[in-house]
Design brief:
The chain is an alpha+beta fold. It has one domain: Nuclear Transport Factor 2, Chain: A (Roll), CATH 3.10.450.50. The chain is built from four helices and seven strands; from the N terminus they run αααββαβββββ. A hairpin with a 3-residue loop joins strand 1 and strand 2. It comes from Arenibacter aquaticus.
């Protein structure tokens, strides 16, 4: 009889774990949080990275940002992040890097503490291009990314970045 109680308890734990997991799974693309993270992604990359409007992206970057990149290493502050953007992304007027989110690749997972939403994980694939004067934009690479956003005083801030599996494209 003791084994039956053990298996019932184990089954109950597994069942509740599965219900919790499915209750906090990837969000539908029509959800408010998904759309919010997509909008912040656009501010960071379409305006900030692609158009070098760094002031627009500044409120969305956490002071203690950690950026892990499989090719260029680790950056551990907002200041270092912006310095790298200025030098490597916005500093070359001849060959301007452009980032594009691969359609359909973005996933968003909510993060809760005591049933209160405090963050989100964004995962996806992005492609990188070069824009030169008098030339068509051309692809140079593709990579995967995972971002951790936290909600700070009503603003979603990028806190942790994993940028990995960079592959050259021609």
């Amino acid at each position: 009889m003791g084994n039956i109680a053990y298996y019932q308890q184990a089954f109950t734990i597994v069942l509740f774990s599965l219900l919790y997991t499915f209750g906090h799974a990837q969000l539908d693309s029509s959800s408010e949080l998904y759309q919010t993270i997509k909008e912040v992604d656009s501010i960071l990359f379409v305006e900030g990275f692609n158009q070098c409007k760094l002031k627009e992206m500044e409120p969305y970057i956490a002071v203690d940002l950690e950026f892990y990149h499989d090719k260029s290493g680790l950056s551990t502050s907002k200041e270092a992040f912006f310095e790298a953007i200025k030098q490597n992304i916005c500093g070359n007027g001849v060959k301007k890097p452009i980032r594009k989110l691969v359609a359909g690749s973005m996933e968003v997972f909510p993060l809760y503490q005591n049933d209160v939403l405090y963050g989100a994980i964004q995962h996806g694939v992005h492609e990188f291009y070069i824009k030169e004067a008098d030339k068509d934009i051309y692809i140079t690479g593709i990579a995967k990314f995972s971002h951790v956003f936290t909600l700070q005083n009503g603003v979603w801030q990028l806190k942790r970045v994993l940028s990995y599996d960079h592959q050259a494209k021609e």
